[in-house]
Structure formats: C-alpha cells, structure tokens
Amino acid sequence: MPESVTSVQTSGRVGKALTRVRLFTERFTVEGDCDECERECELPVLSIGFDYDGTLLSLRDPRERFFVATPRGMVEVERDRAGEARSLCLIESFGAIELDHAPELMAPFDSPADYLVQVDGNVHSWCSFSVYALPQLEALGFDVTIDPAYPYHVVDDDPPWIALISPDEQRTDWFSLELGLQVDGRRVDVLSVLLEMLEQHREGESLDSLLRLTARRRAIAVGPNRYVTLPPERLRALLQVLLELYRGERTPAGKLCFAGAQATSLTRLETVLGQGDGDRLRFEGGDALRARGRSLSLSERAESANEREFAGVQAILRPYQSDGVAWLQRLREFEAGGVLADDMGLGKTLQTIAHLATEQLAGRMTLPSLVIMPTSLVGNWARELARFAPTLRVLAYHGPKRAEQRASLTEVDVVLTTYPILNRDLEHLAELDFYYVILDEAQAIKNSRSQSAQAVKQLRATHRLCLSGTPVENNLGELWSQFDFLMPQLLGSYASFQQRFRNPIERAGCEDRLAALRERVAPFLLRRMKEHVARELPPKTELVRPVELEGAQRDLYESIRLSAHSEVRQAIRSKGVEGCAITILDALMKLRQVCCEPRLVTLPASKEVPESAKRSLFFELLVQQLEQGRRVLVFSQFTRMLAILSEGLLERGIRHVTLTGATPDRQRRVDAFQNGEVDVFLISLKAGGTGLNLTRADTVFHYDPWWNAAAQAQATDRAYRIGQTRPVFVYNLIVAGSVEQKMLALQQRKRQLADSILGGADRLSLLALSEIDDLFAPLD
What we know:
The chain is an alpha/beta fold. Strands 3, 4, 5, 8, 9, 10 and 11 form a 7-stranded mixed β-sheet that branches. A 7-stranded parallel β-sheet has the order 24-25-23-26-27-22-28. A 6-stranded parallel β-sheet has the order 29-34-33-30-32-31, sandwiched between helices. Helix 4 packs antiparallel against helix 5 and helix 7 (319-333) packs across helix 8. The protein is elongated and about 120 Å long. The chain starts with 8 loop residues before the first strand and ends in a 5-residue tail after the last helix.
C-alpha cells in the first residue's frame, strides 16, 4: 500500500513519494476505418505525478536517480519504482486504463494525460468514478485535484430532498407532486428526469433494465457541468414508488398527478428518501394527506391479544375479527372503500355486522345501508343480523311483493337485496341515498361490462365495501371492476389499467408492475388465511384420486376427442382462438362429461356405454367413508350427474339430500344435514359454493374438477370453516391423462395469479391457455 510520505530520509536518501492525481478532460481523435471516419471527442483523463519532497516526476520522466536540494546540501535520490507501481495498480483497480492500451484514441502530442477514467465510459461511470474512487484514493494518502473546468463535477453526494405537494384545483381529492434536490441553496427539479426514465420502461421489462449500467451509480444533472449520483438500489426503490404513483399524466408544469387514495405511496417515499435520517427529506404541503397515508399504510397490523366484545353486537369477536372491524373503521374515517377478502369461513359477515352496529351506536349511520348478495344468501344475512345485531332494523327487499316495501326502504337500518333484484329495480334504488352499499360475494361484478357491475356503480352511497373470499379468480380485470365500484380514481380507467398493469403482469410477468399494483391496493384490501389466524382449526388433507378409463368408456372418450379436436382446429383456422371460445368450451365439456358419466353425453354412442370408472370409484370411496362414521359433501358442475349419484345412493339405502339451483327450500336441506338426519349432501357447485355453513361435514368429494380453483375452494370451505372440530378430507376425482388432469394444472396457474396480487406469493406465473392441443391430447 502506498503511503503519504513527503520528507522521510533514510541514510541521506528521500523515501517514498507522494502520488499526485489530476482529473481533467482531453480532446481525442478517434480512429475509424478510413480518414473520413475519424471524429473528435472529449473524455475524462488522469495525469499522474510523483512528488519526491518537492521534485515532481511524471510517468514519462525516464530518470531513475536525481538530485534534490536539502538543508544539508544536494542529495541523490533513487526513484521508488516499486512504490509507484503499487500506486498505479490502485488507480487501475478503480477502472482507469492507460492511454497506451487504447490505441484507437489519438491524444495531442503534448497531452499530459496518462490514464482514461473509463474505456467505454459515459456520464454515469465518470461521475461514479468521482464519487467512488477519488475519496478512497485520498483516504490512502493520494493528493487529488479536479480541474475547475472539468464538466462532470459531482456536488454533495447525498443532498437533501424536497417534495412539494399541492391540491389539484380542478379535481377533488387529487394532488400534484414535485420532487427536487437542495443543491447550493436552491431546489433543483429531478422529477422530470425520473419520469422520463419510467416512460422508457417498456411493457414486461423489469426496472432493473433501466439501471443496467457499467457504472456503480446513476448521475442526475443538477446544473451546467454539475451532477448528483444515486446508488442503483436507492434509485430502483424510488422508481418503484413513482411507478405506484404515476399514471402517465402530468400537469402543464410537469408535476406528477395522483389521487388522494394513493397517499400511502407518500409514506413509502419517506422511507426510500430517508426522512428518518434527520432532514434528508423535507415535505412542503400535504400534511393531512401524509397523515392519511401513514394511517392507511398500517398493513402490518398487530394481532389483538384477546377476543373482544362490541357494543350492540351479541357475539365475542376473535382477535383477527376485531382487527378486521378496526380496519373497516379506519377506511370509513378516511372515506375510503375496501375489499374484505378474508378466506372462506373466517366471518366476513360478522365483521361487517359489527362494523354497521358500531356506526349505528356512534350516530353516524343516519341513512340506511344496502347489502347486495346472491339470492341464496338473503336468508343467511337476515338470520345473522337478527342473531348478532338485533337493534338494527332489517328489511329483506326481495320477492314478488317488494313493490309494497319501497316506502319502507328509508325507514330501516339495513336493506338486504340481490343482484337480480338490483338489475330489475335499479330505477327505484338509484334514487335513494345510502350510508353504505356493501357487495357480498363481490366477484359477482368481476365482469365490468355485466349488468350488475354497471348497476352497482349507479347507486349513491357515502361509503362502499366489497366482501369476497375470491376477489381475483381468473384475471386482474376482475379486481379493477371491484375497485372501479369502490374508488374509481385508485386504478384509473380500464384502458389505462390494462396498459400499465394487466398486460405487463399477465402477458409478460412483469414483477415490478405486480409489486406496484399490490402496493397500490394493499391499504384497501384485507385478506387473512385460515392457517394464519384460525390455528384452532383441525388439519385439512387434499387428495387427488385418479382413475383409468377402460373398455367402451375409453373408446367413447377417444372417438369424441378426435372429432372435437378436428372441429376445434378447423374453427381456430377460420376464426382464431378468441373467435371460437364457445366451440372450444363445448368440445371440452363433452370430454368432461365422458369422464364423469357416459350418460351425460347426448350422443347415440354414449347410450351403449353403461359403465363409468369414476362412478365406481366414487361409491367405493364413499362406502369406506360412511363406514368410518364420516359425513360427506359431494360437489359437481352437472346437476344430471347429481341425479345419477342420487339414484345410486337410493339403491344402496344411503340417506341423502340434494341442493341445486332448482331446489325450493335450501335451508330445510341444510338443516337436515346439520341435524344428522342424512349422511350425504349432493350439491351443485354453482348453487352451493357460497353461503352455506356445513361444519357437520368432514369429507368433501369434488366429483369433477372445474377451471376455477377459487370456486372449488369456496365449495370445500362449506365444511372447513370456523366451528369445524374434526379433520377434513377433500377428494378430487379425475380421469388420468384426460382433460381433467390438464384442468388441475390450469387451476394452479389461476391460484398463483390470485395469490400474487393478494400477497401470498413472491413470483407470478403467467395465466394463459397457450396449448389448446394439449387439452385434446390422447389419454396415453
């Protein structure tokens, strides 16, 4: 290691020299393939000198010995070539290159330059050299000088940041942001540079692609020949926050526009730019907005230690349920909507009732609240409200005589109605003002173009809330539709959302956009899973039981598969994949029906196939379960399949009930099963996937798999929910090698999409039906 030694004498000789480094620019001629191809450029260079007690030697000085004057007279000095070499090695370790090693550059004859700062340099690498290398050289004892005319001066390496927040004069609860650095007593705008970087962020690219430099740091101009530098990790975090805030629009003055619902991003901005470190970030304006952001960003909510009673609620809420009510209260305080997305069976209804009861006791609920739900849930909501909050006046606005109830709609606390009734009576309901509009099973509006989705957005309400254990089932457009009802300003227009989030995430797997979307919706989406908050639940075991098709049933499957595949390929050739969705789904349904039961297929050949491998396996497994004293739920997409299974149960003398969309008295069937009058409950997936509490069941059969993993999970959770005390076994029956087995893989992809946005996964798997042919592959 070199030392800073100026006048060390040993036996009349001067010891090691002081290395002097000067940084400046030099004009070079760059050689091309011909004389006309030569060009001139100005590059940062270093000149190196060695100071031997006042005598300065350059690298080009050939002398090995020289004389210097001392108080004792002239002293002969031997040049310390080894020490000089060590100094040069250190300089080269920071990326500097000897000019002799860059033959394509021709310097002026009398140039003092010895080293290029970087061979393939740019402003970022040159400024990085100033910030990274020069201080270390000085610390090692080098004397470093930067030429006053050097065009890449780096000012304060960590200047203070200033963020200016102003309300939008044209739009309520909209704001603008300016972001700059305090340099030499003045504020220098850097937001425009950062937004230009984001605008270069192409669909599907990672933010890392913007930071792929040979330099250690990113240089940002703050004036003529003056720069500040940011380390990539800090710049990336800053760009990630701006990605959350930026909607692609700026004010005429270049400020960033954002909605008040995005206030939590300001909290992350504080963290990234280091407000916790003294005065590194100073906000001007927006104090109330930042306070809102800090309150809403409490996503890491500490679990309550104890169960809690709420005034007006005749129930003791579990700790996580108390936290849920507190979260709902916080959203109400800041006039924000939200999605209560707890796992099935964790009590979303009870938490909502406790929240409404709290609002009533506080005197804030001066208008009725409207709860909209699937038809099958009206009775359950009415019973739960009567049981847990008897002080709330409830009206079930449902049935053929509802016209007589319209005068009473404004005289109660809670109005219960259904999505079909809303569509029919929208003209009347849209005239009323509600305190809350609450959507239960809010995935009912997942298609933003559906009649229900359009209808709920026309209702007038002070507050809005969605309840759904499956807010994302198939694609991110479903999430957008719910937030378009809750807070349209949060995710913007559908076109903007598709361009900035859905396409990059679903098509290109862009994890930066996924993280930005997750951070944007996180304050307004609360999801807890059973395994995390209901640890007292018994274990759940998922089993896949494959069965092989043989004989006539196998031949029937293969014949239908060949015919359907040919029809599908022809349709794709003429219309494309998107244009023949109905053809594809119809063909796949026939194959699924063959797997379940040949009699389901409306073809003459199917009547000649009496056997069903899956039906035989089902009854074999069912008898085993019943012999062990277990209570069984059986789900199927096909109501005709349930009828065939019912015939088999009657033949075997097994007590059972059936629930489909055509069942007139749902509750009587549920009570019969819960009271132990029957042992088997046959349920169509569509009719019984929601709104049932069947904790007397401890075994679930999914007779045929469905595309949507969330729908099957909802069905399973009819049994696996709070109140269950026995281990639950879930059997998924599939035909090996068939379309059913392929559907399980698609289920997993959809589940990963939902988990990634709800916070349950770190990485995203693309959701795409990319190989149609694979679904129609032979059984082998």
